[in-house]
Amino acid sequence: MTFLSCLLSAGLLVFSFPKIEWSFLAWIALVPFFCVLDGQKPWVAFRRAYLVGFLFFTFTAGWTCYVTYIGAFFLVSFLALYFAFFGMIVVYFQRLTLIRRIFVLAATWAVLEFIRAHLFSGFSWVMLGHSQYKNLWLIQIADITGVYGVSFLVMLVNLLIFEILRNCRSFRDCFAALAMTCKASITVAIILSVVLVYGLWVTGQKKSYEMVRVGVVQPNIPLAADWDESQRPWIVAKDIQLTQQLKDQKLDLIVWPETSLPGVFSEAPLLTNEIQDTAVSLHTPILIGSIGNDGEKYYNSAFLIGADGQMQGRYDKIHLVPFGEYLPLRPILGWINKFVALDDFNAGKTYKIFSLQHNKNFGVLICFEDTVGGLRRHFVQAGADFLVNMTNDAWFEDTKAPFLHLQAAVFGCVENHRSLVRAANTGVSALVDPWGSIMAMVIDGHGKKTFTEGTAWGSLPLNHEKTFYTKYGDIFTYFCFLCILMAVVIV
User: Is 258 a catalytic residue?
Assistant: First the structure.
């Protein structure tokens, strides 16, 4: 029965994420989880919570096996520890009064997600709050709290429902349970109401925003072709062919995906000239991805080619992916190169801001950088009026990974009230407004959004104001941590 309850909680959580996306399940998914922890000793709670975490991350992060099976196993095993430690903390705080307990435990979950997003380079995917990315009124609170505030709310409701059910063993007990949890229920209901009203107010504000017209290209290039030097002219030709489809849209910018010009940019002058000629013929700047270099140092870079065909600047990726773009602790882990060739990229150091006509400024996030909250904030603080993400999720085959990637990216829009343009080689390519609403996507006639080619374009609002979250960052999680320390003293 214990295993079935753990499986049920993990399954309900998985179903609340892509590709199924029954987001309402996230509000009740952890109730069976709390049932198997109730009254248990810390190490029993640790084991049971670890099982739930392992099952959950197997189905939401297991797509990393397409890069490395061993790495995927260790990643899932490590991520499950966050559930395990949370399980122990649930048992530890059982002596708190009901209302204190549910708020402290919700705060604990938010802090653990914050740690997960930062520790060892971070893994800021499949946060509990991400499951609600289409509930626009609810997620607007992220412009104050970040995604952690939304996770806090979802966890809070799970805890409240569990407390009501735990005290409801018969029809008569139900009335007593409702009375016992009345204060907590009213408090939670007021908080949710305030959050939803705030979201309605934020999304309902009508301002005369300046607009930027942007197009994205999704070429659906097979991953193997990137490694074949003979295929590079074909890859660039395909990107150019799709770009030509946007010639009548009068765009301010066209975005190609990550490494859309395979190889080192400076070593491909003929292909570069073709792209420059395309920008001139369309009278539109083109942002492309390629490998940049400074002598013997190599970077994962984005290059902006202006409407006049001239190079307007380069951004070098700052947040590199461990074991993908560099080998951490190379003196210790260098033996891995005997089995897998891993050359190190260098990390960029500058939050480069590109400018279009009429001072329309943007920052570029390469690959997973659009899931990194602190990085998104820094670009907005540096002057970005909108954000661009170029990525290539072909590594993970036709799985849920691109949709989970999009989920996390949407919260960057809400947190900073900035539009986002995503150009992904195999999808999901999309245009997202400053409040997290998806305005356009590359999608074929059968409704398929990944592993299909095409273009998308549209007008996105430019917001120049900075949100509370942009200015002050993760103050909410620091406050949660303070509440946990106070609870430890009380217990």
Answer: yes
Q: Which of 35, 163, 238, 258 is catalytic?
A: 258
**Interacting residues of 322 by C-beta distance below 8 A, sequence separation 6+:** 120, 121, 328
Mean pLDDT of 339-366: 87
In Å, what is the CA distance from 160 to each residue of 27, 80, 225, 294, 333? Answer: 10, 24, 52, 56, 46
Domain ranges of the chain: 2-205+475-490, 210-462
Pair type for strands 311-316 and 297-305:
antiparallel
Confidence of residue 1 (pLDDT cuts 50, 70, 90): confident
DSSP string over 125-166: -S-GGGGGTT-HHHHTTHHHH-HHHHHHHHHHHHHHHHHHHH
* pLDDT tens digit sequence for 247-289: 999 999 999 999 999 999 999 999 999 999 999 999 999 999 9
Radius of gyration over every alpha carbon of the chain, rounded to an integer in angstroms: 24
Q: Classify domain 210-462 by CATH number.
A: 3.60.110.10
CB neighbour burial string for 260-270, b if at least 16 within 10 angstroms, e if fewer: bbbbebeebee
Cα-Cα-Cα-Cα dihedral sign, residues 259, 261, 263, 264: negative
Q: What amino acid occupies position 209?
A: Y
Any catalytic annotation for residue 466? no
367, 413, 480, 483: the active-site residue = 367
Catalytic residue selected from 317, 352, 360, 400: 317
Please tell me the distance from the alpha carbon of residue 324 to that of residue 64, in angstroms, as a whole number.
11
pLDDT in tens, 155-214: 999 999 999 888 776 556 666 666 778 899 999 999 999 999 999 999 998 787 999 999
Q: How do residues 109-162 score in pLDDT, each as one tens digit?
A: 999 999 999 998 899 999 999 999 999 999 999 999 999 999 999 999 999 999
Active site residue 317: yes
